[in-house]
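Below is a filled-in request sheet from our internal design queue. Each sheet records the structural input a requester submitted and the sequence that came back. We keep these sheets so that new team members can see what a complete request looks like end to end.

REQUESTER: design group, bay 2
PRIORITY: normal
MODE: inverse folding
CHAIN LENGTH: 323
BACKBONE (tokenized):
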């Protein structure tokens, strides 16, 4: 268990915010698989200010997925504070997270995401404004910065802790790296040794063994998993099992197929039949990576128009020799 402000978290795993991925149905699935904390997609503070329907939809939630972290992005202290107040008043979030790590051009051009790491005075103003606006636990997600030294991350972390931020997630890649190259876990260790608030490690965790090495190498309080959870939603619960017992179990193929069917139901309930079917063409393909015959299954998935067709494909793939 770790504690972020007054929030007790019964576990050491966080699902990372992923644009276009960590919608409510996917968060529900990962939560059901045993993840401790799930996080929303990035939510624009300006989108909240302008009452954007698409932005507000990103914060649709259900009680079963709690605790939920809602991640905000923006660069203006006033609008970020207003957004934080709005999120708290909605009553769906247990944590507010601020994005200092997104390196996507359209976000950086707004002065948000990792662009803020170049502007310590603006960053501090944003953090102090948000801290004043909400009583919820406040976290930030940062990168190493714009070069490989990590100095910008360490400087921002000091500012954040002094401003009342309750925990920090570090993805130790530079802005230029994006998701390429290796994450420098030494930066996580150095941050943990420097701060008194919890440090959550992120980057290059593709297996339970990776998570175990990160805990051992860095001393971080918890870990955050992003893209690897897309193909194995059980990964976070496997990490939890390993932390608690020293062993973990691999999901059986039938368990994977049941989770695929569960995702279909969740997507249809949330997005509607037609939209869900189009999205599931790619989403379901994640789950069969490495399984025998997955290439043919993926080709067939690309043609589905209904959830029923998806269910039939899964059944045929699971039991190919029953005719």
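RETURNED SEQUENCE:
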């Amino acid at each position: 268990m770790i504690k972020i402000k007054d929030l007790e978290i019964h576990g050491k795993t966080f699902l990372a915010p992923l644009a276009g991925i960590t919608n409510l149905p996917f968060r529900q699935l990962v939560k059901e698989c045993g993840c401790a904390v799930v996080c929303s997609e990035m939510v624009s503070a300006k989108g909240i200010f302008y009452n954007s329907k698409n932005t507000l939809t990103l914060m649709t939630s259900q009680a079963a997925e709690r605790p939920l972290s809602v991640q905000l992005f923006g660069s203006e202290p006033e609008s970020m504070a207003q957004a934080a107040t709005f999120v708290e008043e909605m009553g769906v979030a247990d944590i507010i997270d601020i994005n200092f790590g997104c390196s996507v051009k359209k976000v950086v051009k707004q002065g948000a995401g990792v662009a803020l790491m170049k502007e310590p005075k603006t960053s501090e103003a944003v953090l102090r404004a948000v801290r004043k606006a909400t009583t919820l636990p406040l976290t930030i997600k940062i990168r190493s910065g714009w070069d490989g030294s990590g100095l910008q991350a360490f400087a921002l972390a000091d500012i954040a802790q002094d401003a009342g931020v309750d925990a920090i997630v570090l993805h130790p890649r530079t802005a230029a790296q994006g998701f390429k190259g290796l994450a420098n876990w030494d930066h996580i260790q150095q941050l943990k040794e420097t701060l008194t608030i919890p440090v959550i490690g992120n980057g290059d965790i593709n297996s339970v063994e990776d998570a175990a090495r990160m805990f051992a190498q860095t001393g971080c309080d918890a870990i955050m998993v992003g893209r690897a959870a897309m193909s194995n939603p059980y990964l976070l619960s496997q990490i939890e099992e390993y932390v608690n017992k020293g062993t973990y179990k691999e999901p059986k193929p039938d368990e994977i197929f049941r989770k695929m069917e569960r995702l279909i139901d969740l997507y249809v309930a949330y997005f509607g039949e037609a939209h869900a079917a189009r999205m599931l063409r790619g989403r379901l393909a994640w789950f069969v990576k490495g399984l025998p015959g997955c290439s043919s299954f993926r080709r067939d998935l690309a043609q589905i128009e209904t959830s029923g067709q998806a269910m039939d494909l899964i059944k045929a793939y699971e039991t190919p020799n029953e005719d």
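SHEET NOTES:
- The longest strand covers residues 138-145.
- The beta strands are 2-4, 7-9, 13-15, 38-44, 68-73, 95-100, 138-145, 167-174, 199-202, 222-225.
FILED BY: M.R.
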